Amino acid sequence: MTSGPIEEELAKARSAYRNRGRWGEDDVLGTLNFLDDAKRAHAASLVRRGRPISLAQECNGNGPQRGFRGRISPVRFKESGVDAAAGHIVMSLQAGTRWDGLGHIHDREQPWNGRPCTVVDGSGDTVTGIEHMADAFVGRGVLLDVGRVVGEDGRELPDGFAIREEHLRATIEAQGATSTVRRGDIVLIRTGRLARCRRLGDWGEYTGGPAPGLSFTTLGWLHRTEIAAAATDTWGFEVRPYEFPGHVMAPLHQIAIPDMGLPLGEMFDLEGLAGECAADGVYEFLLVAAPLPVTGAVGAPVNPIAFK
């Protein structure tokens, strides 16, 4: 439980950006309700070349997880005989590219829609498990390459850089009309943090360490634009270290997921997509990003595919 100035800011955001009850007391989709069939049909019409681009990091034991908060990189086991070809994989559901579901984090011990925290128990999220979103993450994707537009080197943002609304607006203006954000969009925000790890050949503190990310102050933009979901190429979506002094855990998450109902994606590999968008000047595309429908999961792996 937080207190003092931190809680005052959380309280103001909680009141200003709350969507609880907006889609009824039984809702299991949150802001994905903004994404309807008509919007999906329009998104399908954006495919011009039929080129698929995977936005997933590879699943293997080489990184980037290092056990922070119980998350490990995938471990593959091989058996002898006829099972050798298949093998088995043991991994955290949030080990790699993933969506955070509506039960992922609570605000004052309440998950999405003000339900009691007891709905998430030893068996998982018994109400808003990620399986309810299995076919919902299909729609118009928009890439905001903030690292390229705002980064001093035209490539990436430094660790601890807080992306504010003015940075998002500047990126949209620089990229042009195809990056205009509309209701029901799935917005992908590139910081360049993943690219830096690869360039240096070292995961460093990618997992749980300092990183560029969205500022707590962007909650107003996330709410006002009525987007369906948002994702970044970082481990934790929001800027790290956090913008508040003292102890606080994921303040943007605390409001965005349980109060706003906004699913957040993390560890998306946006490098190939960013290159394609920069080359053709088009930053909108059909995005198919279905999570594994693991019953009761509060987050799940995904292999997002952008079609240009």
Question: Can you give a write-up of this model?
Answer:
This protein is α/β, with parallel strands linked by helices and 308 residues long. The chain has one domain (5-58, 94-307): 3-Layer(bba) Sandwich (Glucose Oxidase, domain 1). 21% of the residues lie in helices and 17% in strands. It contains eight helices and 15 strands. The strands form four sheets. The chain has a nine-stranded mixed beta sheet. Strands 2-3 form a two-stranded antiparallel ribbon. It has a two-stranded antiparallel sheet with strand order 5-6. Strand 11 (229-232), helix 7 and strand 12 (264-266) form a beta-alpha-beta unit. This is Cyclase family protein. InterPro entries: KFase/CYL, KFase_sf. GO terms for molecular function: arylformamidase activity. One of its GO terms (biological process) is L-tryptophan catabolic process to kynurenine.
